[in-house]
Design brief:
single chain; about 200 residues; alpha+beta; 4-stranded antiparallel beta sheet; two-stranded antiparallel ribbon; globular
């Protein structure tokens, strides 16, 4: 059904003569679900990654982002640049020739258009019901509750997060454990300790 309906939108854009002036992007809001209506294990919906929706492991937060813009985005190209939904507003703003007021995101335009100069960020941070994750380069730290030990994964060699390498990299652990505390702002509505 999804393929059919996306195809209808793309066909209409082409029929209206807007194909060359329209960027079409597709993504998902989180990893595959566990709460009914699907069979994630049967369909291997997490593609071998650990976790599902509401997890801060890659299976719960890593999603596709597919972009098409004829004549601007080279077909069948891929990137390993890690991004997040908060990057979309500055991306759309740059494409529209403006700048958003305030955002933590970075424009993905250089990556999308195959240009140099993609701004790098220090880290990406996630928090959900007491669970935290932070990624910087190849490293990802996960803490499942405020009192739990921090786990460390090398996503370059272990994208499925099967081997906790925290004891082998104390310097990385110190830096990411500090970031798990400093990268966030406490919220009365969503306190970290509620998890």
């Amino acid at each position: 059904r999804m393929d059919r309906h996306i195809g209808r939108v793309m066909a209409l854009v082409k029929d209206l003569g807007l194909d060359d002036d329209t960027i079409i992007m597709f993504s998902s809001d989180n990893g595959p679900t566990f709460n009914g209506g699907t069979d994630s294990p049967f369909f291997a919906s997490a593609a071998g990654l650990r976790g599902l929706k509401q997890d801060v492991y890659e299976g719960g937060i890593r999603v596709p982002l597919v972009a098409r813009w004829p004549g601007r985005i080279a077909p069948r190209t891929t990137t390993s640049y890690p991004s997040a939904f908060w990057d979309l507003m500055p991306t759309f703003a740059e494409l529209a020739g403006t700048t958003p007021a305030t955002t933590d995101g970075v424009s993905l335009v250089p990556t999308l258009l195959g240009r140099t100069g993609q701004r790098q960020r220090e880290y990406l941070y996630w928090e959900f019901q007491g669970r935290q994750a932070i990624r910087t380069g190849r490293w990802k730290a996960v803490r499942l509750k405020p009192s739990a030990a921090v786990e460390l994964y090398d996503l370059t060699t272990d994208p499925a997060e099967t081997k906790n390498v925290s004891t082998a990299h104390p310097d990385v652990m110190r830096r990411l454990t500090t970031l798990l505390t400093t990268a966030r702002t406490e919220s009365a509505l969503f306190p970290l300790s509620r998890g």
